[in-house]
Amino acid sequence: MMCGGLESITKGSITIDGAPVTGPRTSTGVMFQESTLLPWKSVLDNVLFPIEILQRPRKEFLHRAKSLLSMTGLEGFENHKPHQLSGGMRQRAAICRALVYDPDILLMDEPFSALDAITRDEMNDALLDIWDRYTKTALFVTHSIREAVYLADRILVMHRRPATVIADIKVPIPRPRDPSAGETKIFNELCAELRGMIEHSHRATRKAPAHA
Amino acid sequence: MPDAIARERTLTLALPFATAAVFLIAWQTVTRVWSIQPVILPAPTDVLQQLATAWPDLLRESLYTGAESVTACILSGLLGFATAALLASSRLLKDILYPNLIAFQLIPKIALAPLFVIWLGIDAPSRLTFSVFISFFPVAIGTLTGLLSPNPNLIRLCQSLTATKSQIFRQIQIPYALPFFFGGLKVAATLSVIGIIIGEFISSKRGIGSYILLAGSRAETARIFAALIVICAIGLAQYGLIALLESRLRKAWRG
User: Fold this and answer.
1) Going by DSSP bridges, is the β-strand pair A105-109/A28-31 parallel, antiparallel, or unpaired?
2) What pTM, to 2 d.p., does this model score?
3) At residue B93, does pLDDT exceed 60?
4) What is the CATH number of the domain that holds A90?
5) How many CB atoms lie within 10 A of CB A185?
């Protein structure tokens, strides 16, 4: 929220490309746990919603919106309403919406945590695909260690209460990645290492009842 | 199974009518079997007879009452919406005004009807004000609930796109509030008729309210019942118009 300029900063500073974030900037795309699509708009109109808000010409972005939809497997669903889609499809439409105005940064707040495990894996692959085509910086919050390792180049491990960064880890798994990456030794070692850090940090929190 | 659906639909339509019919037959039987005096409780057939003979009078008076109640209903919609928009526009305003609005609503307003005569006289403005006074509240509360109902993340999404307050209001809050607004307006449709009738009881020489008073003073009970049917018809017509408007709007919206 602070990175998006939606909440004021309590301590320290946030800079994007060296410029401090003081308020919302139009080159940031956001995604939440729920798709937050507008129920009365079609999928296509939902994807083009940011264009409407930014008051840019719809025609210029129509092609981009359609190619995003076909890339995420939503071709043919342009005129459906959100309630006619599955949870995974709605989240894919939300990805298209976050990308349609070509932001340079994506802020993703546990975007797939409400999905079932299989859909979630599909979404991760879809996201990797998108990153291959449109290189974007993404700040992705997740509670899934495997998701973090599978998707990220760099992982920041947060302590809970106070939420400070306890580790900054580079992920040495080469791209492009596919599900077989999850079977490799390096992947699973990294997951184990991260799990150890998080468990250790949780134990530390439990010892200090003042924070409980 | 389209057959089962059709049967269900027929039942939903038929059941209320059947219930009303059973009730009317029971009423008719009771008045006849115990030969209750028509002054106390006229039989449904007496009421129908009265409707058949007095309909020109009833129609004239109901047009008078109906015009005022429709006006009051429209004004309630506008005032209710404006109040809700004002309260939703700022957290501070809502904190200041909302508890007072509720307290204000707790005043037994029907008891205040004579005050409106003192303040505004005995003509249409007095009745309209009183009627709006009792019927705008459900619209205001409903619409406010609707305006504040969108997912906070949706608002954040708009803010992250540097949307203005008015963009968020028009694009997000109003569409979310529409069903709530119409829900409130349907309640207002019935209340506004009550408001006008009470106003007519107190001050008017015309309208269904004064017609009932006159019939009451002459102990013409069947005529009072006939007038009640007309009042129900006015209320139903208003309700129906609003429901129609709502479904039209919804269709236009959803394509």
Assistant:
1) parallel
2) 0.81
3) yes
4) 3.40.50.300
5) 7
Compute the distance between CA of residue A174 and CA of residue A180 in angstroms, rounded to an integer.
Answer: 12
> Is 0.85 exceeded by the ipTM?
no
Q: Is residue A207 very low, low, confident or very high in pLDDT (cuts 50, 70, 90)?
A: low
User: Is there a single domain that holds both residue A161 and residue A197?
Assistant: yes
- Clarify whether residues A35 and A61 are in a common domain: yes
Contact B153 A34 (CB under 8 A): yes
Nearest to B46 by CA among B38, B34, B36: B38
What is the extent of the structural domain holding A43?
Answer: 1-141
Name the residue in chain B with its Cα closest to that of A34: B153
pLDDT in tens, A6-45: 677 777 778 887 777 777 777 788 888 888 899 889 999 9
Under DSSP, is residue A109 helix (H, G, I), strand (E, B) or coil? strand
Q: How close does chain A come to B97, measured CA to CA in Å?
A: 27
Task: Tell me if A149 is assigned to some domain.
Answer: no
pLDDT, position B3: 77
DSSP string, B125-178: HHHHHHHHHHHHHHHHHHHHHHHT-S-HHHHHHHHHTT--HHHHIIIIIHHHHH
Element (H, E) at A16: strand A15-16
Q: Tell me: pLDDT of A208 over 60.
A: no
Gyration radius of chain B over CA positions = 23
* Closest chain A residue by Cα to residue B173: A38
